[in-house]
Every structure is written in structure tokens, then in C-alpha cells.
Amino acid sequence: MEFLWDFLNHQEGPRVRDRLSHGEVSLPGFPKEITDQLLAFSVVLLLRFVDEDVASVFKEKAAVKSLVRLAEGYSARFHPLARLKKQVLSCERSLRVWPLLPLPEEAARETAGLEGNSETNACNSLILRLTSDLYHHLPENHCVFTGLDNLPIDKCPRLLPELCSIRVPTLFCPRAVLEVLAVLQNIGRRCAQVSRQVAASWEQRHQQWVEKRLRSRQRRNYLCMSSSVKLLSPTLYLILLLIALELVNIHMVHGKNAHEYQQYLKFLKSLLQYTENLAAHTSPEKNKWVETVRLTHTALQKMRAFGEKEQMLMHLAKKPAGEAAP
């Protein structure tokens, strides 16, 4: 069924149903490869509803056996949840480029003098605390999730891929689930935008520094950027971890009453607002790196405050059934 939904319905997929019904593709011109795949998976689906005697005869055929294995192992590619997983992993890969970005020795020495202010220290403390809290909500049946208590998230290369590999049902997702996924997708999209912008700005400024083409103000801005990036990197990793954990527990949204659901959406939208502001401040047009520290501090405080209420989906997954809201 997930395969058919991918092919026929999901907006990010081929949308075969819409293209045929809207006349975008003519039947004579319909690709034979897609027709063959649809028919093959339809046969597998039919075998679930015919008599066992008939089904067993067909399932003995090598081609049908192969199709059944493919169908049983298939997971959605174009459902919003699947697209968000892909988005998280893509953003994580782009963040891994940051430590490789070049920094001239002279700039590194000058940057060291800008680090260690009270707001940056407060942010780092919050990141450590929030990361530790999120680690406590990792699935217990995966060995890769053990022994992480004191390890920074950016030092755990397998963490996000393992979380995103966990199978989550995608059929019959109600409106509340899709609404949450839409907000999480927008957050992930902005995180990816920030990552791209930082890498592009860094490379440009580095080249200008090496060629001694930076004016005094631009030079100061470059130093602020190199200092801010050390804070933004773990912050974005933290947000990606939060998204991945909420994805694993996305169907726990049914455990929220109307008020709790609205409060949860409000929190997610505040996180979205932070990433939107971050994208604006790190854009080539603005380059406001000092302001990103203030934005980050405020966002981390909101994450801590909402986390203390234990109203994220990962929190509901840990509660006994009797404690969840009806």
C-alpha cells in the first residue's frame, strides 16, 4: 500500500493518479516501466485477499517471491515523514563540512579573544543540558544509543542515521500528524538553508582574508562569524536530534488533548521562527553574527522551558498509558 500511495498520491512523488485524471499524461504515452511496476505491486496486494490455496501457487513462482520480498521491505519514499527523514540526514551531512572549513592562523588567534562571553557560555551550558535530556529519550532497543551521556551530538556520526532508519507507519496519517510534520519540515528546511549559507559565506570571507581584501569592519565580521559558528553547529545538531526523536514518536500526538496539542504546535512554531530568523541573519545580505548568539540563547531557553513540561512526543512515549491525555 505504501508503494501505491507513493506512486499514485503523494505530492512529492510521481502523482500518477493526478497526472492521468488531469490529462497531463495521455494513456497511450504512459511509460511502460511505471505500468509494469504498478501492475506487479497490485498483484502482490491482490494475493493478500485471495484464497490461501491460490495464493500459495503463485507465491511459489520465483518472480512473485521476489516481488513479495520487495513489497514487504518497502518503506515510503514520498510521504512527508520520509521526505523529512531525508532532509534531516542531508542537513547533517552538510553540517559535517563545517569543521573542515579553513581558518587562517591569524584569524584563529583573534577569534579566541572573542569567545567565552557570558551569553555564549550560557548557550553552551543549555546545549549540554538539552542534549543530555534528549539522550534519555533514545530508543532502548538499539545498541548504538548506549553510552552517549557525556558525548556531544556532533561526535556521534551514527546517531541521526540510526534514528532515521527506524520504521514509522505512514498509512492513514490523520490531520494532526500531517500538521506537525509540515512544521517540522519547515524547521528542517531552514536549518539546511543556514548550513548552506554559513559554508558559502565562510569560503568567501576566507578567500577575501587570504587576499587581504577585507576592510576593517568586514574583518571584524569574519571573526564574529567564526566565533558564532562554534555555537551554531551544536545548536543545529540539537534541533535535528529533536526532529528525529519527534518523528520516531510522531503518532503519540494522539495522546494530546486539544489544549496540549495547540501548546505543542506553538512551541514548534517558535522553533521555526528561530530558524527563520537565523536564516535571515546568516544571509549574505545581512551577516549579523553577533545577533545570532542572542537569538540562539532565547531559543534554547524556550526549548528548556517546554522540555521541563514534558509535553514533547518523546515524553509521551515514555509515560505509562494511564498518564497520557485522553
Automatic annotation (TrEMBL):
InterPro entries: ERMARD (IPR039635)
Protein name as it appears in the record: ER membrane associated RNA degradation
Organism of derivation: Rousettus aegyptiacus
